[in-house]
Amino acid sequence: MSGPVVVILAAGKGTRMKSEIPKLLHPICGRPMIAWPVAAAVQAGAERVIVVQGPERELEPVLDGRVEVAVQEQARGTADAVRAASAHLGAAETVIVLNGDHPLLTPATIEQLAAAHAGSGSAATIATAVLEDPSGYGRVVRAPDGTVERVVETKAAGDATEHELHIREINTGIFAFDAGELLWALQQVSADNAQGEMYLPDVLPILRRHERTVSAFEIAEDPGAILGINDRVALARARALAQQRIHEEHMLAGVTIVDPAATVIDADVEIAPDAVIAPFCNLHGSTSIGSRSTIGPLSTLIDTRVGEDAAVLHSYLNGAEIGDRVSVGPFAYLRPGTVMGEGSKAGTFVEIKNSEVGAGTKVPHLSYIGDADIGEGTNLGAATITANYDGARKHRTRIGSGVKTSVDTTLVAPVTVGDKAYTAAGSVITKDVPPGALGVARARQENIEGYADRRRERDERDRDAGDGRERR
Q1: CA–CA distance from 471 to each of 58, 335, 364, 459 (Å)?
Q2: CA 265 to chain centre
Q3: Higher pLDDT pick, 54 / 136
Q4: Which of 134, 302, 304, 412 to pair with 446, CA 20 to 30 A apart?
Q5: What is the pLDDT of residues 137-146, one digit of tens each?
Q6: Which value, in Å, is the radius of gyration of the alpha carbons in the chain?
Q7: Residue 391 neighbours by CB under 8 Å, 6+ apart
Q8: Where are the alpha helices (DSSP H) in 352-426?
């Protein structure tokens, strides 16, 4: 039996977010909000996922190839939004409807709903929850036999009676339908309510009037299923819950997170067992951490791969590739295109950009390496600089294996330093250094005897002359 087709309603404006960014594009732990229910549907085994968006089609840039897009041309309610997806249902047997602004619904809940619907023999199954305070939610009205009679909205006066307002079982906005029954019932829905909209729950009494059964599936163990996002406060709550889930998943898989309350980890970050994440670390994007590596404290990694047994201390890495047994920091800045070979080091106050650092090579401190290729086993002295930009174009510096640059060496690209070559301290290297040679490029030192005394005498004369001018 094939999986269900999942329809995700995502055409709402989200005006309460008070943002120029569409609500469903606001990020939660590194993913746009809409990407969360899409991922949950895919993980739950959906045969197809259909996202219904508004006429602006603003969500398409973040939807991948697993998603089909339907457009609701006018905001006429949830039933109309599902109707907009009808052309995409094909030969589907079961249709599950989710909300794009309920990002923390789990794949397990979707699977359980699908199984409950298949086992019930009902035309529709509504996912419900029982709340201590159901204010603002549509109430689920049950028939005497325990099946669902209807859902009554409470957002405007006149839709719900006083008795119905005391019902604590609420509509989560999640449904499972037999596809054929859904398509037929959608044609019967009207906008005869206080809001003048076509509500998807109005499908339920239509089905019942034609002797179809509507069942309920109560969600008891998934608080994220009912956590809808309409403003920044709810967004923060959702992010906190999502972050907690991410932390727990990593820790149960063998990762040590020393202080989860002081650690930020995006949803798509991968961390191998026995890695240690120290406090005040931020791991974003497609970052991956290898086994037994230690990150932090106070480190930020963005789209960075870290190998095994590596250490990144108090540093900022963006788009870097860190090999096994590499040491980074403290206070290092590794920019996109940086590749650190096995056993290499980028030390204190080191910045590296678009460069490949060979295995065992060390850049210990106070250096800038940009657009460079460095061989294996090289040691760059303090304040080694690659001057890679001439004001119009960037050029590469090539440093061989076994090279030792002394302190305060500037390499003006394009330039090549051969294997096992040396540079003298304070040199500005503008020409290639052959393998095994010593590159010296600095002015010859000259000492001027008696300079301090002559300087003092000159200063005294200048001071006396100034006093004379003031007296006149």
Answers
A1: 78, 61, 58, 19
A2: 8
A3: 54
A4: 412
A5: 889 999 999 9
A6: 33
A7: none
A8: none
